[in-house]
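# nightly structure sweep
# worker-07 picked up a monomer target from the shared queue
# config: single-sequence mode, recycle default, output format = structure tokens
# input follows
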Amino acid sequence: MLHSSEEGFTLIEVLAVLVIGSIITILTFNIVSSGMENSKHIQEKALIQNESNYLLVVLREFHKRGEEYSIIFNDEEMIIEDVNQKHTLVFNNYHYIINGGTEPISISPKDNDKSLRVNLKLISKRYPHIEQITNTILHRL
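# output follows
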């Protein structure tokens, strides 16, 4: 028998508070983990764009010199070299594709009317759905 002078919570009230608290905790966890995952993707996109820009700067420097140079790929690195200099880029996080393939490319700016069309595609190894595609033309005056 219940007396009106008794204080406390009933079992139903305690269970309701636990259920509501659990729902709020699960929703908060999902929002935070989703935000962290989105942050990682945004960071990866920025890194892949920086890598693409750096590679284009290196290619531009070699192309400006006007001497024949070559681009050689393998699974771990890309080597850009001419008579005077060799530049090695190590593939830690990305797959590189230049002008549609990964075959060695030999370029002679003196013979190719001093311009070169470059189609560069970088694909993230960690997140394969993230890629950076850059199309540009390297000129030599």
